[in-house]
Amino acid sequence: MTRPCRSMDKGRTYQTRTQMNIQQIREEILGLLRGTGREGIGQTIDYILGSTYFTARCHTHHHFEGGLARHSLEACRWALSHRGDVPADSVVIATLLHDLCTARSPRSSHIGGHGRRSVRILEEVCHLRLTSEEREAIRLHMHKEALTLKGNPLARIVWLSDKTSAAGLIPLRDRTAA
User: 22-166 architecture in CATH?
Assistant: First the structure.
């Protein structure tokens, strides 16, 4: 039996909220990814659907079923609202896929690492064409040096959105609810 994790949202449990919203989270993520129109996005979506992306837990936060997808969507929504002049498709790709390596898939079990592993999965397994800024943002999403990079505001946005979501500061609400 899984013990539910307490959320910071009025004592509800993440487990209950996750079960209730997992399909909505999945559909929103897939829609955002499809909306980029990026070369290789179809293969990336196929990879995600064949992996544990929508059921995986994050290691130190969002540690409940579906936590990885929820964290990624929280980070994406936050980053899109703080992106400034950074292209929306780059924000979507970098935030939704920065922790892709956390999802298990037999197609990538031979690739090690974390940020670098996510980049390698995207480029070598999914054949997604990343920009140099996206590659760097995903690779450095766990490193504070992302905040000081000149010429790559995407890296800063991804780092900040990742940390803000991990801290539980982004309540994910159903956008269709009244």
Answer: Orthogonal Bundle (1.10)
How does pLDDT run along the chain (178 residues), one tens digit per residue?
333 444 333 333 444 444 448 889 999 999 999 999 999 999 999 999 999 899 876 566 554 556 789 889 989 999 999 999 999 999 999 999 988 888 877 777 666 656 678 999 999 999 999 999 999 999 885 656 655 767 899 998 998 888 887 776 666 654 443 3
Strand partners, 59: none
Residue type, 37: G
The pTM is what?
Answer: 0.77
What secondary structure letter does DSSP report for 144?
G
Within 8 A by CB and 6+ apart from 38, the residues are 89, 93, 128, 129
Q: Name the residue type at position 127.
A: H
Rounded Cα distance, 25 and 149, in Å: 31
Domain residue ranges of the chain, discontinuous segments joined by +: 22-166
